[in-house]
Amino acid sequence: MLAAPSASRLNSPFVYCPLKHSSSSSFSTRTLKTQRPPPSYPCIRAVDLDQNTIAAITVGVVSVAVGIGIPVFYETQIDSAAKRENTQPCFPCNGTGAQKCRFCMGTGSVTVELGGNEKEVSGCINCDGAGSLTCTTCQGSGIQPRYLDRREFKDDD
């Protein structure tokens, strides 16, 4: 059966074997009496940390905290916004729910100039001659939707 290696043969940067004091040391006899004798087994030292290692650990911890904190912040903002009543009028239609047709400029008819100074007037095909369209921002409600309410999230699976 193989025996375990002795502590004096272990070579590792994490294992520390204290040196025994010789009689020729410059310590006074008083300090030798107050110190504990070195243990007969190896002591494990803590890992030496330099500034770069501490900075890397700090950056990692801060990154994890920010990665968790930002989504939590946005979730709380969304929840509190959902509780508040939305009464802000729609910007594009000024709260009316309808926008002026951009093809006929609200007249309901389109004038086309033909050759020889002839003009042809026809009904607008975009608004069917009404001169206005339902506001695409508020869908005719006249209330400005919140940012996430304006987006359509489609599940195309």
Describe this structure in words.
The chain has 157 residues and is α+β, with helices and mostly antiparallel strands. It is 25% helix and 14% strand. The protein is built from 2 helices and 6 strands, in the order E-H-E-H-E-E-E-E. Strands 1-2 form a two-stranded antiparallel ribbon. A two-stranded antiparallel sheet has the order 3-6. The chain starts with 14 loop residues before the first strand and ends in a 23-residue tail after the last strand.
Note the total helix count: 2
Approximate strand percentage:
5-15%
Total strands: the figure is: 6
How would a crystallographer describe the biggest sheet? Answer: 2 strands, antiparallel
Structural class category: alpha+beta
Outline the low-pLDDT stretches: none
Helix percent reads 10-25%
